[in-house]
Amino acid sequence: MPTLAVSAMDAVADAASRAAVPTAHPADRHLLSRFSYGVTPAMVTDMRATGGSMPWLNRQLTTSRRDGFADSLLDWFPNMAYSPQVLWQRHQSGTYLGWMVMADLARWTLLRRIYSNNQVHEVMTDFWSNLLHVSAPADKPWPWRIRYDAMIRRHALGRFDDLLAAAITHPAMGCYLDNAESTKTQPNENLGRELLELHTVGVDAGYTEDEVKQSALLLTGYRVDIRRTWNAWYSNTDHYTGRLSVMGFTDANSYPDGRVTTRRYLNYLAHHPLTARRIARRLCVHFVSDDPSAALVTAVADAYSASGTDIASTLRALVQHPEFAASVGAKVRTPSEDAVATYRALGVQASRPTSDYSFANAILYQTQAMGQRPFDWPRPDGFPDVAECWTGVSRVLNSFQTHFLQGGSHYPDQQVVFRTPASWLPKLPASFGDVVDHVSRQLLARPANNTLTAAVSTRLGIAANTRIGSAADLPDWRMARILSSLLDTPAHMTR
Amino acid sequence: MTASIPVAEACSCSDFRASRRKFLAGMGAGVGGAMVTNLIGDAFQQVAFGATAASPNIVVVLSLRGGADGLSMVVPHGDSGYEWARPRISVPKESLIARDTMFGLHPQFAPLQKMWDAGQFAAVHAVGLPAPNRSHFTAMEVVEDADPGSAERCGWINRLVGLSGGSDPAEGVQMGGAVVPTSLYGPAPVLGLNSLSDIMLPGTASEAVPHRRSLDQVWGTARGSLGQGVRSALDVTDHLGFLAQTAPKPQNGANYPTGNLGDALLNTATIIRAQIGTRVVTIDYGSWDMHVNLGTVQGGAMQAMVGELAQALSAFFTDLGTLGNRVTVVTISEFGRRVEENGDLGLDHGYGNCMLLLGGGVKGGYHAGWWPGLGSGKLIDGDLAVGRDYRSVFADVLASRLPDISIPQVFPGFTPESIGAMTRP
């Protein structure tokens, strides 16, 4: 390929075409990146139309955007519409097995993360789902797991006290942490303990083993008819009555129907200052950095308490703290965040799946191969949210593999439309460096800096000042390498 | 569509395979063997082939996540408190194997009976943390960090592999699973591998060199654990890429059970045979959190999981053949479970537990001279007490198998008690 300086005319033409790709100011891109699964040019346009990243966040927190395509995705997975009872009947008759329903839930979730216009809602649904984790697939909770997901979605931008009460008394949680089988004569400590340790005040709160037992006794009564009808009911006869005291919450607990007392207990825990700190810290670790300062955590915890556990108010305090703005690039994407961001960046358009090889179905196997299938963390503490857990050799190489396979439209490639390689090009002729810059603006919502340009140049053996006269100078495989090279960078692998 | 990148041109596979390897930062020549220079960003890392480690032995730490019930695995049938506390789920005395007057093994350990009879399988009972901690997550952190009083986040296996002063990520390997466990966190590079087949960069062979250079340009100086992780990954593709080129094959007719544990042990046997300088491998196997349906010897979670464990370990040692003499497997779980059964054929969180030792250097049999007993007044909040700190068991293994390792540096501030389950070198 001839190496020629780009003429002044070409530079003007190129600048005009580049201007057509909206890129955000770094501070705006930072906020959009933390509160989405990947910043796209369309998001930047939307953000600008709203008046900036803070107004954009406020609107995402308060108003649901039109979401026709993302909402229609449910039609692709018709089994998700059945009740737990019918899901079980279909499982038993061999019509549609439980693990298939749980695969559908994970696929639908990935697709919503890729395509929903309500990105903040998706991000917060993911966050709470991981805090109040119920593994899927898992043996006992699965028939109720889709209802559990819907419950989290309802409360994801509401108040934590409502969310906690709905989650802890939900049949899926009861099945997962054994409360559905815990009775006054044969109490099971599992949920009573994890409620304190994982969902609210935290392990250092100072509760005793006796308080764990009392926590479990208070929660008795929420039953599920496991492996028979799967009906859920409250059983007065199984509920323990008698005075209980946990973490400063004391109640005579004298009524056989303990639901009002339970709600009071959960409300008390949701508003406890130690819960405020714990939730605030989890939010800071997710949205700011792996090691947030005590001052930041305190500011966010104060907003949580002052607002009566209001989620939107808490998040506003978080992004308004200077530590948020200073944390650009400090969060490493987990493998499934990386996968979803890759599909978004490449603008892949999925259609209704027809087989396991279809994009909408196969992305589940792709995230599994990368080490993080949605919901499959096997313990109640949820997926880890810090970089040191997600930077092993397999994780890195499997991410590179996915960037290569998707950047080259190789796999999964059924029932999906990729952008044509030529569609990534700026107006030609242009220098190779300007081509890389133009692709970077579309793919990563930022201009290509010297490091990115040099890396792509090295990979393809094309100097940055090489003149690209027409699309024929960059055959499809070369554009595929430009795309995967840009995805294999900190700009894409952090958020 | 994809091909693995070849190993660095400067050394052939066979040289590499045949030699022990250490990445010796800044030590220069005189170690013996060929030197290969590998540019990573601005830092030259000197890689020596042919260096020999102080000991060729390998320790495999098998973490039974979720709190495995040691009383169902190594059953104290001679303690009357056992059956009394578990009217429905106790393992019947007559079903136990390798039974003596006090203990016996769960019958699902049958595939390991031969190793027991050969004196290569030991059970150390009533061991655990110095103080009860019935939180899964805190107990795991404490067990794996193993440096109480230090705020530094660094796991004991990371400290161990860091002692050599080298930067060879293959010394400490997590096999199976994508998440690096606490025991391996820390400044020394380690190898977190789901499967050996992952060790490749995508792309055609003709692109391999510019591809690799391009990644060096981007990641050479990238900060944080992602930068370190990518540099380790690139190192590993350079030097261990050959391991991905053929699927691991069990040797000696070994028959691994289907599942993650069998896969991880098969991959582990393969890297042990490849002699890449690995000293410690960690594998997770769980969950053992059997609040419900721990079950009986007829059915339930315990009999299924012990069965898979025993079959997988039996296959592993069959696969290794005589190399098995160099390999010691140690199990650890964050806590034992309540002595008394709950209403759901299960057990809530407890305290004292057992650890199992198999393979090279093991003095077979039961080691529990400190047995605290299950009688009234002997339990701690309803749980088996701890007679020996779990670190003493690891120290016993390290002193026997990796004698160059300084135990005070691996377990700071801890003085091991005598266990006697391992031979001395």
Task: Please write out the topology.
The complex is a heterodimer of chains A (495) and B (425).
Chain A: H1 8-19, H2 26-34, H3 41-50, H4 53-62, H5 68-72, H6 84-92, H7 98-115, H8 119-131, H9 142-155, H10 160-168, H11 171-176, H12 190-199, H13 209-218, E1 222-224, E2 232-234, E3 244-246, E4 249-251, H14 259-271, H15 273-287, H16 294-306, H17 311-320, H18 322-325, H19 335-346, E5 349-350, H20 359-370, H21 393-407, E6 416-417, E7 430-431, H22 432-443, H23 450-460, E8 467-468, H24 476-487, H25 490-493
Antiparallel strand pairs in A: 1-2, 3-4, 5-6, 7-8
Helix pairs in contact in A: 3-4, 6-9, 7-9, 7-19, 7-20, 8-9, 9-10, 10-14, 12-13, 15-16, 16-17, 19-21, 21-24, 22-23, 22-24, 23-24
Chain B: H1 13-18, E1 21-23, E2 35-40, E3 43-49, E4 58-65, H2 70-73, E5 74-75, H3 80-85, E6 104-105, H4 113-117, E7 121-128, H5 136-145, H6 156-162, E8 172-175, E9 191-193, H7 208-219, H8 224-240, H9 260-274, E10 280-286, H10 301-320, E11 327-332, E12 353-359, E13 365-367, E14 388-389, H11 390-401, H12 407-410
Parallel strand pairs in B: 4-10, 4-11, 7-13, 7-14, 8-9, 8-10
Antiparallel strand pairs in B: 1-3, 2-3, 5-6, 7-12, 11-12
Helix pairs in contact in B: 7-8, 9-10
